[in-house]
């Protein structure tokens, strides 16, 4: 039986992880390659790297990180953030990543999804979506709107329509991030996750709001998500992946045991 | 000394295989021309993307003739990965091009409408793989899970080809072998220690 995936997400700026991350043993680690190795050995099913390097000139640093990660861990990982062109995608995939995630670039130019899918296969292209609840209104029938720039810019696009369009254009997976839930540790945005997951045919990764193993159990069952993204709850040592998986197992949710 | 040759026709995560074999201290070569292929002892044919696209890339690579020679005439072991496995069949529902035809088999699409529980395609993530007969490919591997990423699956022409099965909607053949021809639907290069062991087994068979 297919397992639900638990996916730690690492923010990387100019080759370093951004937050003062502490694992349970209190060792501070700022090197994304070391962190990838830690999570690989700790039972992560997949990893997501999000490049928040501001300047385009310094993006080669990230490619170097990707290459080193690929030499160190043997589970799938995706890279997102700042992917604007087919060449950006190619560089990341050639360095050894499984998938690339496009977000605001796809909002501005949806063709990048179909171009990427044609060139590298649908399975390589993840559509990242940042979503805010705005209530039902003209042009936003689902009540959820697509935003970019960390939630500051509203795009006038309905989240459900965009998810379905992304799928039609060839995205192989959706990483669905709720801007409202992000950083709250109060749980994933259940209604949003379930609505998207039930109305597309491709896998959906829930993102934003994870604070306890219960939140993951919820979004993987009631929320119908295929995978759950986690960040601070493991980065700061509140929980280990093993503890999370043991909890999910206890709830009869199938997870991979290493 | 075991050594493995990867077919480089522009498809698949070649760096992942190279990194694993380097770690295992097993010689690995990447073949981009026929001469390299003709001196190979074991061949791995990676694959991602669509059937026709992968077949087109292989047919245009200039490697096709040497590959048929090594696999069909010299009978050296070959391992197809994901679409690389599917390409070994006669053809696929996904495309119009002919497959390599090394094995009497077809490739079909998962019937999402007939699924009762899981409804998402591709079949993406970690799933159980249950060997149905003894084979060196699965030596020292117990109760494994491997990483899958596909919407089409291999339908063996004879039940004897099936080496392992997996459940997704229904049961399907997730690993097969017939003589020197081996295929796995999952990605051993991304399947942690189980995958590393399988790739080691293939090199040492």
How would you describe the overall organization of this protein?
The complex is a heterodimer of chains A (258) and B (205). By secondary structure, chain A is α/β, with parallel strands linked by helices. Chain A has one domain: TIM Barrel (Alpha-Beta Barrel), CATH 3.20.20.70. Chain A is built from ten helices and eleven strands. An eight-stranded parallel beta barrel of chain A has the order 1-3-4-5-6-9-10-11, surrounded by seven helices. In chain A, helix 1 runs parallel beside helix 2 (59-72). Residues 20-26 of chain A have low confidence and may be disordered. Chain B has one domain (3-204): Class I glutamine amidotransferase (GATase) domain (Rossmann fold, 3-Layer(aba) Sandwich), CATH 3.40.50.880. In chain B, 25% of the residues lie in helices and 31% in strands. Chain B is built from six helices and 13 strands. Chain B has helices at residues 14-23, 34-38, 51-59, 64-73, 83-86, 192-204, and strands at 3-7, 27-31, 43-45, 78-81, 91-92, 105-109, 123-128, 130-131, 145-150, 152-156, 162-168, 170-178, 181-184. In chain B, strand 12 (170-178) and strand 13 (181-184) form a beta hairpin. At the A-B interface, helix 2 of A face helix 1, strand 7, strand 9 and helix 6 of B.
List the helices and strands of chain B in order.
Answer: EHEHEHHEHEEEEEEEEEH
Q: What distance lies between the first and last C-alpha atoms of chain B, to the nearest angstrom? A: 11 Å
Assigned CATH superfamily of chain B = Class I glutamine amidotransferase (GATase) domain
CATH class of chain B: Alpha Beta
- Share of helical residues of chain A: 25-40%
- Strand proportion of chain A, as a percent range, falls in 15-25%
CATH topology of chain A: TIM Barrel
Broad CATH class of chain A: Alpha Beta
Low-pLDDT segments, ≥5 res of chain A: 20-26
- Corresponding CATH architecture of chain A: Alpha-Beta Barrel
Tell me, briefly, the overall form of chain A: globular
pLDDT < 50 runs, ≥5 residues of chain B: none
CA gyration radius of chain B, whole angstroms: 16 Å
How many individual domains of chain B? 1
- Helical fraction of chain B: 10-25%
Q: Provide the β-strand percentage band of chain B.
A: 25-35%
CATH superfamily descriptor of chain A: Aldolase class I
Strand order of the largest sheet of chain B: 2-1-3-4-13-12-11-8
* Number of DSSP strand runs of chain A: 11
In what order do the strands lie side by side in the largest sheet of chain A?
Answer: 1-3-4-5-6-9-10-11
CATH topology of chain B: Rossmann fold
